[in-house]
Amino acid sequence: xxxxxxxxxxxxxxxxxxxxxxxxxxxxxxxxxxxxxxxxxxxxxxxxxxxxxxxxxxxxxxxxxxxxxxxxxxxxxxxxxxxxxxxxxxxxxxxxxxxxxxxxxxxxxxxxxxxxxxxxxxxxxxxxxxxxxxxxxxxxxxxxxxxxxxxxxxxxxxxxxxxxxxxxxxxxxxxxxxxxxxxxxxxxxxxxxxxxxxxxxxxxxxxxxxxxxxxxxxxxxxxxxxxxxxxxxxxxxxxxxxxxxxxxxxxxxxxxxxxxxxxxxxxxxxxxx
Length: 273
Fold this sequence. Notes:
Blueprint: H1 2-62, E1 90-95, E2 105-106, E3 109-110, H2 111-128, E4 132-135, H3 145-154, E5 159-166, E6 176-181, H4 186-203, E7 207-213, H5 222-227, E8 231-239, H6 243-248, H7 253-272
Parallel strand pairs: 1-4, 1-5, 5-8, 6-7
Antiparallel strand pairs: 2-3, 6-8
Helix pairs in contact: 2-7, 4-7
């Protein structure tokens, strides 16, 4: 009777201990799982924040040109990506026409105004890349060919880009092209090719290539190209008579200017090699 009583009394005590131990172990395991989940979530959140910061700063690292230098057109990005210039350079930007010389025109657009707006934007981008820029004109003024050449040569420019727009009777004619004098050195061809490549890749403009001529041709601007003491080109930024090309110098001005600046940087980078 006494032994049976002790067995009955002992059983509940042993189960109490087992149940208590299991309960304690469950609480510890549950607490550990909560801690693990919390730590993992925090780490993921921290990782997401880090990636976000990297993406925000990425545009500043991708180009030597400012953020607008990144093309958003249908073509590839401007080819200046990754180029870093180590030397000091001077570039002459010549906004074609001006003053009484309107150049080509279409509706409310005049070549002299369009070329000036592009030239000014290219100047800003080049200066932000550490390149010194001289302009043949900064307002709607008359500038002779002789004066343009003097400004370029006096500045000892490393390259001269004369910005123009084409025109044609057929509105379907479109695309960018560069003109150089027949007797200019190979550097002028390299400059022209770098510009056309950057413009067509960066904006999706039609590629009309590099063309050649002389002062005796109808293109009077060969004077600028022929007498500059550096690599030079007459850059025709599409056709003022074409609705798509007009957008390159109006709605897509920043994109086009960045592509031009990118081509110049590409050329100067090659001369360092």
